[in-house]
Amino acid sequence: MPTALAVFLRLLALLTIASMPIVAQAQGCDGPLPPPGPDGRVAGHFPYGDASPADIVPAPPGFGLKPYCRLHRAMIPDLQRLLDAARADPSVGGTLHGLSCHREVARQRNVFCRDRSVSAAERAISVAPPGHSEHATGYAIDFAVRPARGCPDAEACMAASPAARWLIANASRFGFEMSFPAGNQQRVKWEPWHWRWVGTSPAEPGAAQARAIFARARAQFPANPGVRDLLKVRVTGQPPVPVVTPVVAPPAPVKRGRRR
What we know:
By secondary structure, this protein is α+β, with helices and mostly antiparallel strands. About 25% of the residues lie in helices and about 10% in strands. The chain is built from seven helices and six strands; from the N terminus they run αββαβααβαββαα. The strands form two sheets. Strands 3-4-6-5 form a four-stranded antiparallel sheet. The longest helix has 23 residues, at about 5-25. The radius of gyration is 29 Å and the shape is elongated.
């Protein structure tokens, strides 16, 4: 019968083996990445785990440029409303599509390691290391415009398109915000195509979870344009009207004449 020590050592070995893929992912493809900073970021990116497979569902029909475009179920209603509104605008129509949707950690590693002509630190400016991509949460979308009209996907020229200008002006009304605006201090490339969903308000179904996941990113590096919650003033009762008591001046002293 195995002793308690033997059972403990066996359990420790199993835990070590189970953690090996995570360590390999953290190292990227050509050597280790910089160690995490005090806030958990690696090469500018916050850590994000994989979404539960039960929460990942197909995107609205016709939205994804690839058949495997899938997203978190909580964001689908707002995404559909956004697409309907964009389709109704003559300047945009049905030109907005999904270039990249949910990407699990394993697929993110393939994306991150695709171009090895530059260092991992340089790649991290525009591609998050595995385990540090917003796409793994299922709440992030890389939008594309079709027809592209000469602008490659995931390039800054997209910002000049009518569809991108419409997103910048309207996406926050549907709970979407630009994660990496121009000039951000997160050391991430300006990505006018990358938008994350946080819901139109904290009370919207599923929004509280999304906001919790992105809490540190939103607090340290606010999105622009971002979702701003409206300030609500609630009056619980009418304060009493103050009663002003008039101040009566004391009577002037009567001057008495001196008797002679």
